[in-house]
């Protein structure tokens, strides 16, 4: 998948999602599937997808972007957690099993970390260049987290419950409040469709509206984009009872706004301008400690920035990770020269507007010593 030699890395992006090893972790709230990619001696990046999705349909675009894959796999071993019953080839969960709550799902994350003994196996080779405080946190089992929509809510809740285990949060179109009336009504419609008709065409249309912008969903005159067609095919593989159980858990979620101020890890939020959860992401950003958070609004994009515009995440993620002493490899063979290199891109093209971004800067206060 990736070969390291000094500061260089060679990536075969075609095998990133064809490789990896699947583990089934038995937790107090049932079994959960985890796909592991990369060198387990490296610090951990834990991902969690949205409703009815898994790593194949939620993070594939990001990891198929060679520069993003180089940045993440150079620094992390990736642990893709699938919601219960959302893994590839999953069978239907017994309808009599207790419905999980969002707290149960957050607790499953820490059980996954403990199962893999994250932090206990990181080698000095991978940590020697990092700041001492970052090394200490990684040694204690702290992880970087990346979640999309409902997955972002689960990982945010996990970060509040287990603050010492989270080093940073990368959240894409995150949820943080209880469902609005609009979302509640949409969830009720989807619940009834799942119960009576399964993964029918109308349900998939509802989910695609949740995920993508109008531009890529197409219309009567414009066909669906390739990423939407691929997502529609992957939704066919979902078991309706499993999706319904996760939907019910998310529909019963409490508002976690009050707990956001307790977070002490750095947080980077991405949201598309056309996301149904755009206002929710703005609300979350406004309630986070501005010293440790930043918001990136991506123009002409829906909720799944990871799939629709993964290139828009690259530069903000790189600067975010620099705060931990983590850097992309200086070069990687078998791929074009990095667009992040200042010698191969005109300075005027690095402006946020040219990349389709609206950046909300982190406000900091520096007290001068006299």
UniProtKB/TrEMBL annotation:
InterPro entries: AB_hydrolase_fold, NDRG. Keywords: Membrane, Transmembrane, Transmembrane helix. The chain crosses the membrane at residues 137-159. SUPFAM superfamilies: alpha/beta-Hydrolases (SSF53474). It comes from the Eukaryota. Belongs to the NDRG family. This is Pollen-specific protein. It comes from Rehmannia glutinosa (Chinese foxglove).
């Amino acid at each position: 998948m990736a070969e390291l030699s000094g500061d260089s890395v060679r990536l075969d992006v075609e095998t990133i999602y064809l490789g990896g090893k699947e583990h089934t972790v038995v937790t107090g709230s049932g079994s959960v599937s985890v796909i592991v990619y990369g060198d387990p001696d490296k610090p951990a990046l834990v991902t969690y997808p949205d409703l009815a999705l898994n790593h194949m349909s939620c993070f594939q675009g990001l990891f198929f972007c060679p520069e993003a894959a180089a940045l993440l796999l150079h620094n992390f071993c990736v642990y893709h957690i699938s919601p219960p019953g959302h893994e590839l080839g999953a069978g239907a969960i017994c309808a009599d099993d207790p419905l999980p709550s969002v707290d149960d799902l957050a607790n499953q994350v820490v059980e996954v970390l403990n199962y893999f003994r994250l932090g206990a196996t990181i080698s000095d080779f991978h940590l020697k260049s990092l700041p001492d405080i970052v090394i200490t946190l990684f040694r204690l089992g702290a992880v970087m987290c990346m979640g999309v929509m409902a997955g972002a809510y689960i990982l945010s809740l996990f970060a509040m419950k287990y603050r010492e285990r989270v080093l940073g949060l990368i959240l894409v179109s995150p949820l943080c409040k209880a469902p609005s009336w609009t979302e509640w009504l949409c969830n009720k419609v989807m619940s009834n469709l799942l119960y009576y008709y399964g993964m029918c065409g109308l349900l998939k249309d509802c989910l695609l509206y949740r995920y993508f912008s109008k531009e890529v969903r197409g219309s009567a005159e414009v066909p669906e984009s390739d990423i939407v067609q691929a997502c529609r095919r992957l939704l066919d593989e979902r078991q309706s009872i499993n999706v319904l159980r996760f939907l019910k858990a998310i529909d019963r979620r409490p508002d976690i706004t009050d707990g956001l101020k307790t977070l002490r890890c750095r947080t980077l939020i991405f949201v598309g301008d056309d996301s149904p959860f755009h206002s929710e992401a703005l609300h979350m950003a406004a309630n986070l400690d501005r010293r440790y958070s930043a918001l990136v609004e991506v123009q002409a994009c829906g909720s799944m920035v990871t799939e629709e515009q993964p290139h828009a995440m690259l530069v903000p993620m790189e600067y975010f990770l620099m705060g931990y002493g983590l850097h992309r490899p200086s070069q990687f063979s078998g791929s074009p020269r990095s667009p992040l290199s200042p010698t191969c891109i005109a300075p005027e093209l690095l402006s946020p507007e040219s990349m389709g971004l609206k950046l909300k800067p982190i406000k900091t206060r520096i007290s001068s010593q006299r």
